[in-house]
Request: fold
Amino acid sequence: MKKQIITIGLTPAWDRTIEIDGIDWNEHKIISSQRIVPAGKALNINKSLAWMGVKSTAAGLWGSHDFEQMKKTIAGADLCVCPKRANTQVRPYINIQMTKAVGRTRENITVVDTKNKRQIHLRDKSTLANQKSLKLLKQDLGKIISKDSLCVFAGAAPIETVELLELAKKKGSLVIVDTSGPALKKIVSKGGLFLIKPNVEELGELVGKKIRNEEKEIIFASKKLLTKSKLILVSRGEKGAMLLFRSEPRASATGTVVAISAKYTGKKYPVCNTVACGDYLLAGFLSVIARSKATRQSQPAELLCADALETAIKSATAKAFGINEDFSWLKVKNIMKIRLSSAYEI
Reply:
């Protein structure tokens, strides 16, 4: 039986992507295309899972002014899921259980210069999370979170998010965190986490020291954090990703640290858009973990972790190349080549 995956996002957004065939400062040009979709890190994870044919629940906050528009847009969206049929509706794969927050959801803008192969990302601040909306969200989460469900807290988060995480822990769920800044530090300090997904810079912030994007430094920095989280998934950009965990669950900092590295080694395609690649990485990982018997008390087996990491890299790479919009997951996962390697340290 698959575990329920619940994403929880407090800072959702409408993502507007504008493509233009070459532009520079002070120029005026007609755009090639544009589109706007409901997004935010949490919802991006849901959409990635849907592309892979995995059902999930989307919780968290969304602005009341555009709530119905969001639901209609998601329900009518197409996904390249079935290899024999170009598009399949997303409706059966994402269960919308978001909490309405007074106000309008922010809009983020990505401008892609297709001629010069460059892009710029413009982010607005989210104002939906406040004492009232978080109280309502906590009530809603209490109804949908169940034992051993995978609760994914993704995106920028206020310090008050800690209270929501504690609720998930008390419910017996496996808590996954993909955020940054002061909230991440406080969340990790409390421990009891199943997985955290920092990039190299965020990992350095957690240990209070700048680290290089090298395997040895990542392993050394992650060691002490494995008393707080069973798994640490570190995104490394073009170098792929690393997964770190202990061979046995231990309360102390002793024992063997297992570090699995994964990198795409197949055919190189132009990188279309790096937005949401980290979300697709996490979604790919969770799609495998959701099928396992892992619990808060158990430690996932090494083979399972390797399979999950390989799937994660395939999903993230497909997003970076833009081929997730043209090919089904079934085709993508069979044509992508990933190199895995393991290291062990006491």
Remarks:
- The chain has ten helices and 17 strands.
- Confidence is low (pLDDT under 50) at residues 82-86.
- The two ends are 35 Å apart (CA to CA).
- The chain has one domain: 5-20+32-345.
